[in-house]
């Protein structure tokens, strides 16, 4: 079997192969892109070929930036379009492609990679762990009243206007970019995605209304993408802002929409305050809780020293990477928001798989949770509480970009 990068001439073969792996047929391209795979870059795509040259597997990646705790940015290739033809599964094709791809990432100097898992049982064995989570909140229109803000909270002085998706592409790109730089766990959306309308709404060309919030000076500082579907359901694709007051203003606008039976907010972060802002707490029906972004560390010291930290302390981590047959013991020392990470022969505080380190890396999964689950071994009683304090971020990570 041969695994090689593709060229522009291979794009049709690549697209046909990945669709065949999932039993689907490619859609007809629309003018200027508009499909989920429109933003693929052929030098980042891999084809697995049999000895006689038949394509049987695919894998690709996008060049993203990931926002880490402390609002630092890191290069993060986003793995996508992974598939193996049904005729060649369980023959080592997927493992070979994953190993080849991870080696390429390291050659490019990457210290982590990310993906969205089509099946939760697949990618843990390749070192990826779920690191952010998302859900939806459904609110019946008749119970949609928000509580009045308490004294001391500044009233929103901005405004909301409704635009069509086609009218505000540049605006959406700018607002999203400001948001993702402040939100741990968020991914960049390269200009190529917006220009080619690749992905899901509001990037995709599907018709959407956009509620744009502007501050008192008229500067856009948030938006919500929505459409009215069957059964009088207002579906909100995403609500983008780094300001909780702006989110509340957009939610109030959406919940007040006429001729709507219920409003469904997609991609609501865990523990989001919107449910608590409803006058009737039980009106908000949470559901669809799921993992979203999975993280894989490729260079433990670089990854741990790249993010911001909010508690001082020392922790010895014994990290095993079964897929790459590697193991290292690292002394993590945090002081003043910065970390140092060096090899050590000291006794470990925690022993863990690299996939579990990926899960706790952004602060969205508490190390103690994985200790209680039997994933991480704590070598003394203080290890898990100390790890919880160290890895906790300034805010919960959240990712809503689909790729």
Describe the structure in your own words.
This protein is α+β, with helices and mostly antiparallel strands and 403 residues long. It has three domains: 2-110, Aminopeptidase (3-Layer(aba) Sandwich), CATH 3.40.630; 134-289, Gcn5-related N-acetyltransferase (GNAT) (Aminopeptidase), CATH 3.40.630.30; 298-391, Nonspecific Lipid-transfer Protein, Chain A. Helix content is 23%, strand content 32%. A seven-stranded mixed β-sheet has the order 1-2-3-4-5-14-6, sandwiched between helices. A seven-stranded mixed β-sheet has the order 8-9-10-11-12-7-13, with helices on both faces. The chain has a five-stranded mixed β-sheet with strand order 17-16-15-18-19. The two termini are 28 Å apart. The model has no long low-confidence stretch (mean pLDDT 96).
The CATH superfamily of the largest domain is known as Gcn5-related N-acetyltransferase (GNAT)
**CA distance, first residue to last residue:** 28 Å
Q: Estimate percent helicity.
A: 10-25%
**What is the oligomeric state here?**
single chain
CATH fold node name of the largest domain? Aminopeptidase
Q: What is the CATH architecture descriptor of the largest domain?
A: 3-Layer(aba) Sandwich
- What Rg is obtained from the alpha carbons, in whole angstroms? 22 Å
β-strand amount: 25-35%
By DSSP, the count of extended strands is 19
The pLDDT mean sits at 96
Shape: globular
What's the domain count? Answer: 3
- CATH class of the largest domain, please? Alpha Beta
Element-by-element helix/strand order: EHEEEHEEEEHHEEEHEHEEHEEEEHHEH
Cross-sheet strand order for the largest sheet: 1-2-3-4-5-14-6
Secondary-structure-derived class: alpha+beta
Largest sheet: 7 strands, mixed
Poorly predicted ranges: none
Count of discrete alpha- or pi-helical segments spanning 4 or more residues: 10
Binding site for acetyl-CoA: 82-84, 90-95, 118-119
Domain N-acetyltransferase: 1-199
Active site: 123, 403
InterPro entries: Acetyltransf_17, Acetyltransferase_Eis, Acyl_CoA_acyltransferase, Eis_dom, GNAT_dom, NAcTrfase_Eis, SCP2_sterol-bd_dom_sf
